[in-house]
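Running low. Any example?
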Amino acid sequence: MSQFRTWSTRLATTNAPASTVLIRLFVGVVFLSEGIQKFVYPDALGTGRFEKVGIPAAGFVAPLDGVFETACGALILFGLLTRAAAVPMIVDMIGALLITKLPLLWGDAALFPGKSGWWTLLHESRTDLAQLCGSAFLLIVGAGTWSLDAEFVRATSETPNPLGAKTR
């Protein structure tokens, strides 16, 4: 059990300020809502979109992506297992940029017919880049002091003393 506590405490430990909650709020809400929308609007944002860009097994991959975005978005939003949740979201954003946005450089982006060029790439990538940077930030610094991760670390670092009062 102590090995689990050490591993989980290291994963949850954060020295980030409470203001990190703003980054978690932005990143978490966007991932959570986008994940849900993959199921609410499957033709436009889920399986249909994945088929349009040529992702194989779109009927499997799109819902899987929706589940990851929904679950990881919720975890990030509440600051629970934040670093672990940030990793698949970084992979998700790199994939989105490579598959849907990078083809804009040579004018072959299925989602953006007739558009091409560096400035178009930057414009269309702005949300993906913000999500990527926000997720990378959370991976590096953790959830911040206003999070369930920080509460977990505080709770597990308390040791009972013989008189029954908790100490740190």
